[in-house]
Structure formats: structure tokens, C-alpha cells
Give the backbone structure.
Amino acid sequence: MTAASPARPPVRPVAPDPRGRRAEPEVRRRPLRQHGRALPYLFIAPYFLLFLPFGAGAVAMAVLLSFVSWDIGAAPELTGLSNYVEVMGDPLFQTALRNTAWMLVAYLAILLPLGTAVAVALNSRNLRGRRSFQVALFIPIAASLVTVALVFQILYDPNIGLLNGLLTSVGLPRVPWLTSPAVAPWAIIALRVWRVVGYYAVILFAGIQSIPQDLYEAAEVDGADAWSRLRHVTLPLLRPVTLFVAIAASIGGWELFAEPQILTEGGPLRSTMTAVMFIYRTSFLEFDLGKGAAAAAVLAACILATTALLNVAFRSKT
Amino acid sequence: MATELTRRGFLGLSAAIASTAALAACAKPSPAPGGSPSATLTGAPSPTLSPLPSGPLTVWNASSQLNDAIKNVYAPARPDVELSLVELGMADLQERLLVSLATSTDLPGVVSISSRVADQYFATGAFLPLGGALEPFAGGFAESAYITYEGENYGYALNDGRMGMWVNAAYLDENGIDAAALVTWEEWAEAGRKLKADTGSTLFLQPTGNNAADFFASYLNSRGTGWWDESGKVGVDEDVAIETLDFMAGLVRDGSAYVGFWTDQAYWEIVRQRQVAGVQTNFAIGGRNLPTNVPEQEGQWRMAGWPRWRSSDAPGTGTYGSTFFGVLRGDNDEAAADFATYWLTEDGLPEIVKAFGTVPYAPVAETAEGQATLPFFGGQKVIEDLVSLPYPTANYYRWSKVQEITGFQIDQAVQGAISAEEAIRTAVAQLAELA
Amino acid sequence: MNRKGSLGAYVFLGFGAFLAGFPILWLVVSSLKPQSQFANPVPSLGSLTFENYVVAFTESDVGRWALNSLLIAVSTTILGLFICSMAAFSFARYQFRGKGVLFAAIVATVAFPDYITLIPVFVIERELHLLNTTAAVVLPLAAHALGVFLMRQYIAQLPGELFDAFRIDGSNEWRAYWSLAMPLVRPGLGATGLVIFLAAWNAYLLPLVVLRSPQRFTMPLGLAATHSQLLTGNQSIDPWAILTVGSVVSIVPLAACLIVMQRNFISGLTTGAVKA
């Protein structure tokens, strides 16, 4: 990382604040005379041109769907909140939501520290082959999910799977990876973590790379060791990106679908039944689009609540 | 093997049942696709439409091998039909179909559907009854092989869902078990226990989840019962269901059942290693996938019919369900209906047999494929043997929910977490809430 | 970091790379096996062959799927990076009426899985006559909600004085965005580009319903169709050949995208001007 180029205006060094708060007032305190009133809207216009129909519009229609009863082939009829009542009272939905919630917590608890650790490791000074490591770690998410699921299905196979083969070769008993209700959720979580940790690590690493080198140098001069630099420089300044990763991962966790659908179909004994699997089966298998939409709305509320919670937890006062 | 007379006799019986159905079908007002069909009984009928259909036709098909037949056999036979073929997995097809049905957009002319979930599709009113189009072929079908809904005939089972007990008879022989001598389920269970004790291999299959529900339903319909009766109410013989479920749980307790499914990626490898020496399955899996995936065991396997519950029972079997071609109302109903029935004609029938192994259409037993002595099965005329079993009646209604509810109870009972009785009673109670 | 720390990093990353790469390595090796001996973990090196690739490309549609996917992914990424970064620039730097609501609306839509917005999007595209076009997949995916969020995080970190200095020089706001902010947030662009590319490449449900003719199918659709052939058995081409080849082929553009993003955006940039 090179030093600042002399053509730029001089910047005053600022001691790193552990909470990452800037000491400077910002543009937003200035009056709005610097640009036309319409300008901010012009910048967001292209995005909203697409977002309004395909993002907000689609979601609004989906929420509307939750208030109707629709026999395919006939016209939909408004039914008020009856879909919501039905969904909340459905024991399968309750199971699905419960499963999804606990699997999410476990998933985040494993993914965030692991991803950060990998990103920090990637940031090691003088690391050779950094690019190759990144590519290797990125590959799991690059491979098609269908094929990955097949590979893992074989890996997890109780009889001829590689994992059990390794275990038995050192004298350990076979593990019923996908056939035991206690183990199967963990097997799914492991697959998900395997698939995404490199992806999030690359994003976190990009975040670490944005942290200016002088801060590290200043800390070193102050006598901080590697661990201390990590705690007081890297992690705090990484917060905005960590927040993004946490939110993205939590959304992925709430919306867990493809892995359990392909590997276990929600079994064994509904232990890997997730909320989106419920939505899928209600909408696409049972043809109850209204009820599926209601379930999706409930799930969305859970996701938004989690996002708000994470926002508070990772608040960085930028 | 069972006597020749019995097999032929049952073939005749099926045909008799079917011709009664044919007479009933003739009374239906649905328009015929054109031309003058001639009613035939046995032999492979081949009514020629004049003129042949033309115009655009979109087909969504889920079977890859039939795609080859569609392109190479059907298309040249219908040169004026502009065929547009979409090939996807069944689940993907059904997702696509739902979106098209809900929005009435870009519906195909013909689509592959699983017979188990057909009722939901027919309820949309978008499908075309095929009663008249199927008239020429009526002689060869058992009534239960038709896909019906509210008295109308919407199609026929493309593949034969009838179940057989497929065993590696050579392996059993090596271990002192004579597969040909086993008649009742209890005798088979005993053989399974012996095999497990001597070799550790399993003789049976026990699926889980949705597959367990379908599997169990095939046992029920082999015993003349099922979750629903014809009127759509819960009508299962609970004692029969409990006895059956208890038996299945027993097999798993004995260790003589492979808990999993024939679609497990490792399944055929386990078969190859002879850890699995038997499987209850339909013809498509037993008669086609098995020889294709485990060619090294050629000559060792037999299709041993379907065991009986009491030695006094008549031979019978269950059906696992099938796929069929649903015809949607559209701009080219004539070509669509013709496509759906093409596979029963003299030219189409061999292609179906090549793709699916067999169809529940009596004339198939007379075709070259149907008469084939399969070397993989030591020269057994497997299709003929399978086709000789009567075609069971199965009522599928709200099947997705049925799979969820009954699959869960079956899994619990099979694992020993609850008793078979509790499982059946709970399932019945929950199903009754649906009706 | 001292050398011991570096060694720890090497071991950790090496193990991680092995775990990450192993199943894929297995896939690559499988794609080179002469038959589907998938259960045989260690084939002899001499038996490896490219025949699966030849078969897959000449007799199946793997090549077309790859091209379709590539076109969609690249278009979505370029369009998406533009509109997301522009919108993010506005959200990060300006105050305007409705800003909070609009941003919240964007984030809120992420909470809805695509299964539930599928039919609405389908209907909207039908009305706009977009069905069965590349745009049918590109347009919804370019408006990537998390992309705006991520870019905003990066842009918000840039200090105010930079922009003040820029404005004193008399430059307009567009140049503030294009010439000042964008170069400084290259890591963000890289990461966001990657996120969008991946979403577009792996998109499955939307293409399944909006791409009506098989010539337009993307790689995930093709591979899913092949996967279902595995279950039914008996095909003219061994589905494993197509699946393994297709998967390996899929990885190439994604790895390329990562390398491009990396080289140009993520590492080796002037960071001295960026201050906390």
C-alpha cells in the first residue's frame, strides 16, 4: 500500500477511535446549495426505474396475495387475514420457523468468526499466493448448487461416503449425517458454511484492504501487537462490511432452501424443514398461493427484525 | 414361476374389465380427434388419422429418453406439426406450469405430470378430457390405468407403476434361500432375516419422507384399500394399514431393510457390492435402471412378483403411481390429443417401452419388447410377468398434503418412535381434517 | 506480522483451500474419468480423458447454456454496478426528502425470497413484453438491493473533506461520483461486482419461468434438467458427464471474474488519501 500522493490536500492524522467514530463534521452539515435539489433523485433514478417494478412492485403484489384466496383457474378472492391465521396456527409452519431460527443462529455463530479469520489470514503481510488462495476459497460458491449437493450427498452417504470412510478407517463409528434428526441440520449448516465462507471472506478481505495502512503503522509505533491491532484497528473499522456480511448471511440463513430441499427434503422427521421450504410446498405443491404469501410475509418480518437487530449490534457511527 | 394359465387368465380378465370400460367410454360425448377409429382389443392398434394434425404444438416433457423418441420418431411421423419441445425435470416443469396456469400465459399443449398430483391440475379447468381420443385404445387398458377426474378421462399412465419384488436370486441361492419358493410376506421376511444374519445384506427397501408415503400407499392399494375412497373421503381400512405399517417397521427392526431410496446417489454402488440383494420397486427402476446401472450382475436377478399377505390371496400388486401426458385446452387441441395418444399406436408403443420399460396397456405384452426374454433376468419374460398382475386402483387426492402427513407418521413408526396403530390413527385424523 | 504468524496463516489458509477445493477437485477429476465410476475415488492417472468434454459440448447444450449464462451475468454486472453505485452515492452523500424511506424500501425487499415474488415479476414482465429475452433476467437482477447497501457502506466511509476540496475546484457532482468517489471505492466495486455476478450466474428460479424457449436456457437450468435425468435413468448421454463438465465450465467464468475483480479493484490501490 503506497503513501498518499502529494497532489492531494494534506490530511490531518486522526487517532483511531475504537468505536470507529469520525472526529470530523461531514458534508451533511453543509447547506444544500452545492447542487440542485433534483440532483440526488437523478442519481437514484436509474436504479429505481428497475427497482420499482421488479423490486417494490413485485413485493407489494406478493403481500397483496397474502390477503386473497386463489383457486388456480378461478379469480382470486379477498379473504382478509384468514391466511395469516391459518399459517400461524399451522404446526408445520411453526416447526419450519423454529428450525430455521435455530439453524440461523448456529450458522452465523460459525460463519462470522470463521470468515473474519480467513479474511485476516488473507491479509497477512507478504502472503504469497494470496490470489490463488482467494480463488480456491471462492470456488465452492462458484460451482452449481445442484452439483455441489450431489457431491455432498455422496460424501455424507452412511455406507460408502468419504466422511464415514475416514471415520471408520480410524476406528470411529459411522455418523448418520443425513439420516438422523439430530445430525442432519448440522450437516446442512456445514454444507452452507462450506459453500459461502470463501465468498464472505473475500468481501471482508476487501474491507480490510480499505483500512488505511497508516493506522496500522501508528498502532505498531504505539507498541500494539498483532492481536491488539486486530482488535482495535481491524475489527472496529471493518464493522460496516461485517454488518453487510452479517445481514447478507442472516438473510441467506432465513431463506435456507436449496440445500435441505435437495439433500433431505426437509427430513428426517422434519428436522431440516425450513420456512422457505414451507412456502415452496404451500405455493407450488399445494397450490395455495395466498397462504404461501402470508407465510412469506411472516418470514419477511422475521428477516427485517433480524436485520434491525444486527444493525444495532454492529452500529458503526460513520 | 407361477403357472402359465394363471398369467394368461389374468391378462384376459384385465382385457375384459377394460372392454367394459371401453363401452362406458363410448357413451362419453367428448369429440374424437378426427378420422374413424376402429375398436380393437388385442394386438397393437394403429388408427390413422386423416388428415394428420398440423400446426404449432408445444410439449413440456420430463423424460429425456422419450425426448429422443419425440424428435426421431414422432416428429417425422407428423411432419406438419411444428413441434417445440421443452425438457426439464419434473419439479421444474411443475413450477413453470403453475406460473403459467396462474397467469394464463404461454401454456403448453402437452405436459408431463405425475398421476399422483393430477387432481390439482384438473381442478383448474385448463385440461382437456381425452375420452374420445382414447376410444381406439380402450380395449387394452384396465380402467384404473386411466387418469380420471370427476368422471372424465384425462389421460393414461405412460409408465407402469406396478410394483414387483426384485431380487438377486443368484446371491440368495448362494446363501441357501430359494427365491422362487417364497410366497407370503412372512416367508420373505424370514428370508430377509436369514440373509441379514448370514451376510449382513438387506433384502428390502424402506424409504423415508414423501417417498415413504408413496411407497406405503402402493402397499395399501395392493391390498385393495387406500387413504381416500372414490368420493374423496378418508376411507382406509385401518386394520389393514396398521398391519402393513407394523410389518414394515418389523423389517427395519430386523435390519433387513435398506433405509433410503433408489435415487440415493450411492444406491447402485451398494447394489453392486451386494449389500442390497432385493428391492420392492416398479418396473422402471427394477427393470431398467437396475440393469443399466449394475450390468455386472447380469443373469443374477429375477422379478419375483409381489408377495401375498396370506397364501390364499390371489396374486396382485400395488402401483407406485405414474406419469402421463396431460393435454391442455389451447389452439391446437387436435395435435395435442394426437400427441398424447401417439404412444399407444403401433409406431409409438415400442418407443414407450424403450423409454419406460412398459406401459399398463395390454397389447404391450404382445410386442417384441413385451415378449423379450431379458438376459439380465436370466431369460425371464419380466414385462409379461408384470403385466399379468391385475392393475390396482389408486385414488390420489391432495397428495402433497398426504405425503407430508402420512410420511411423517410412517417415518416415526418405522423408526420405532411410535406404534403403527398410533401412526395410522393420527394420519387418519389429520387427513380427515383436509377432506 | 512475524514469520510465525505468517506460517499460521499459510497453514490455516492451506487447510481451508483444501477443504474448499477438494469436492470441486473431485468434480474436475470426475469430469475427466472415462465412465461414471463416481464411487471410485482414485482413478488411475492414465485413464483420464477429455472425452466427456467432447461429448458434452458436441451432443448436449452445455456450450449454449454457458454462453447464455455468461451474457446474462456480464450484462447484469455492468448494469448493476452502474445503477447501484450511483444510487449508493446519492444515499451516502446527500440529504434529500424521502431518503430514509427509499433506502428502507430497498433493504426491505431483500426479506422476500424469490419464490414469492416470482409470479408478480412474471406478470409484470409479461405486460412489458419482456418474456423470453435476456433482459427478462438481467433487469430484475441488476436492481440488486444488497448491492446498493454494500456500495453505500464503502462510499460512506470516504471523508467529507475530499468532496469539499473537489467542489472548491468547481467540479460538478457527476465528476464527484465518477472521477473521485468511484476510483476510491474500487474494493467496494469489486466486491459488489462479484456479488451481482454470482447472483446473476447462479440465478435459477427466475430464468426457469421467464425463459420460455430451450435455446435461451442458462447453465443452472440445464444442469438441473440433467440432474433430473440422473434420477430417471437411461439416457443417451451419461448425465454425469454433462453434470461434471457443466460444473467445471461454470466455475471458470466465476473464477475469472474473481481474478479480474481482484486485480483491478481489490488489492494494490492508493489508500493514503482515505482516512477514517
Remarks:
- Residues 1-45 of chain B have pLDDT under 50 and may be disordered.
- Residues 4-26 of chain B form the longest helix (23 residues).
